């Protein structure tokens, strides 16, 4: 899955270029609907050496949805959530798509579970 760096707020770029400061991001796979954690920082628990930054043609429009919070009340480490949709996707179609997402392994950057909710 290809994600445009600019749409992610250059989160994995040099600190001077970042408009979003996060150690990992939540991204929904448009094919399998799995909501997963991803990071390109080696010190992150979400780092996978097989993940990489490459030049690719986007498969749709990347949308920032919201900052997600975990279930732990004192945790102050939110996770930015992104999804990929076609520009022609209506709000109703997006809502229907969201209802099919698989959230079971999503967690904040500290490892705490995040509930399936965009409200």
Break the fold down into its secondary structure elements and pairings.
Blueprint: E1 25-28, E2 35-38, E3 61-68, E4 79-85, H1 91-98
Parallel strand pairs: 1-4
Antiparallel strand pairs: 1-2, 3-4
Q: What do these coordinates show?
A:
By secondary structure, this protein is mostly beta strands. It has one domain (5-97). It contains one helix and four strands, in the order ββββα. It has one helix at 91-98; strands spanning 25-28, 35-38, 61-68, 79-85. A four-stranded mixed sheet has the order 2-1-4-3, with no helix packed on it. A hairpin with a 6-residue loop joins strand 1 and strand 2. The longest helix is centred in the C-terminal third of the chain and has 8 residues, at 91-98. The model has no long low-confidence stretch (mean pLDDT 76).
Question: What distinguishing features does this structure have?
Answer:
119 residues, mainly beta, four-stranded mixed beta sheet, 4 strands
What separation lies between the terminal Cα atoms? 26 Å
Number of helices: 1
Q: What's the rounded overall pLDDT mean?
A: 76
| Tally of structural domains | 1
Shape field: globular
Beta-strand percent range = 15-25%
Listing every helix as H and every strand as E from the N terminus to the C terminus, the arrangement reads EEEEH
The secondary structure category is mainly beta
The gyration radius over C-alpha positions equals: 14 Å
Major sheet size, sense and barrel closure: 4 strands, mixed
Instruction: Give the number of DSSP strands.
Output: 4
Strand order of the largest sheet: 2-1-4-3
Helix content: under 10%
